[in-house]
Specification:
Elements (H helix, E strand, L loop, with lengths): L2 H24 L5 H47 L9 H45 L5 E2 L7 E8 L9 E10 L2 E9 L8 H7 L3 H4 L7 H11 L4 E3 L2 H14 L8 E4 H8 L8 H8 L9 H17 L1
Parallel strand pairs: 1-6, 2-5, 5-6
Antiparallel strand pairs: 2-3, 3-4
Length: 310
């Protein structure tokens, strides 16, 4: 039954009830019993109309609810997969993934730039060394009894790859020792077992020692500045010295150097070779350990005095 028909029926029943009730109450009706029956009829009719009206309303609400549910289900099933990205958790993961990707790209870019920068610095350093590194010194042709003996212990034989781990300085004046100095340094690269056996210097011993930096080299330069230097196999020690001065931009004069190896080969004929260890033992130049910078300095100084006497 349509809503409009139920409304009209209900309204008509109410009017009939009021009209019949008014007639009964005023006593103007010829047949009261008939009027009462009519009133009861219209009351039942009104109640029926209200019942059907309520039932129809409830049914419509249920239909609307079911329709909304069906529409919702239809939208969920037909929604494109990309719309699931509206899920906050999914969105957060995508944002985090993009952020990590961008950070990785930025890190790679920084590493590439750093690598390129290092290559450029190495190239410039190489060009600088090739252009301006001067390892030359003046070779003394006459001997003197006032001089400074210099000796290095190193991690290897290559001045441009290996490092100084000890230097020794012994200053002579008129054939007598007037000053001695030595210092140890911790290298950037640990020394090998072979060097430990040769020098007796271990990595454990050097662990708490300072680095050889510009301040240490400035002090070393102060000890030898303006003096005749003496070394046994001078090219080895002088290359290490001048290369470190160059790297640390220590300004210096051109040193005058006496090489006791060169003069030993000229003046000493009674030994099988002219290694410092051999000469020390043959002439009893020093009772200290070999391959210790300070002891080797003393032995070299005494060797020079011996050569002067020859």
């Amino acid at each position: 039954m349509k809503k409009s028909c139920l409304g009209c029926t209900g309204l008509f029943s109410l009017l009939a009830i009021f009209s019949g009730g008014f007639t009964v109450l005023t006593g103007s009706s010829d047949n009261i019993l008939t009027d009462i029956l009519l009133i009861l009829f219209f009351i039942c009719l009104a109640i029926g109309s209200l019942y059907f009206f309520a039932k129809n309303k409830t049914k419509k609400i249920e239909e609307e609810t079911n329709e909304q549910h069906d529409n919702s289900y239809s939208l969920d099933s037909n929604r494109p997969k990309t719309e699931t990205n509206n899920n906050p958790v999914v969105i957060e993961k995508e944002v985090e993934s993009e952020r990590i990707q961008k950070e990785n790209e930025l890190l790679k870019m920084k590493l590439d730039l750093k690598e390129q920068y290092i290559k450029e610095i190495e190239q410039k350093s190489s060009n600088k060394i090739n252009d301006s590194l001067d390892l030359s010194y003046t070779k003394a042709r006459t001997l003197t009894d006032t001089f400074v003996v210099l000796d290095f212990e190193t991690t290897g034989l290559k001045y441009n790859e290996n490092e100084i781990i000890q230097y020794g300085i012994v200053e002579y004046e008129k054939g007598k020792i007037i000053n001695e100095h030595t210092e140890y340094f911790k290298p950037d690269t640990p020394i090998s077992k072979r060097i430990e056996r040769i020098t007796g210097i271990t990595n454990e011993f050097l662990e708490d020692k300072p680095k050889l930096d510009s301040s240490k080299l400035e002090y070393l330069h102060k000890l030898i500045c303006g003096k005749t230097l003496v070394a046994h196999n001078a090219p080895f020690d002088m290359k290490f010295l001048l290369y470190q001065f160059y790297l640390n931009e220590i300004k210096h004069e051109k040193f005058r150097v006496i090489d006791t190896l060169t003069f030993s080969r000229k003046l000493i004929k009674e030994t099988p070779n002219h290694k410092l260890q051999t000469l020390k033992e043959h002439f009893n130049l020093d009772d200290g350990d070999s391959h210790n910078a300070l002891n080797d300095c003393r032995a070299t100084g005494n060797l020079l005095i011996l050569l002067m006497n020859k």
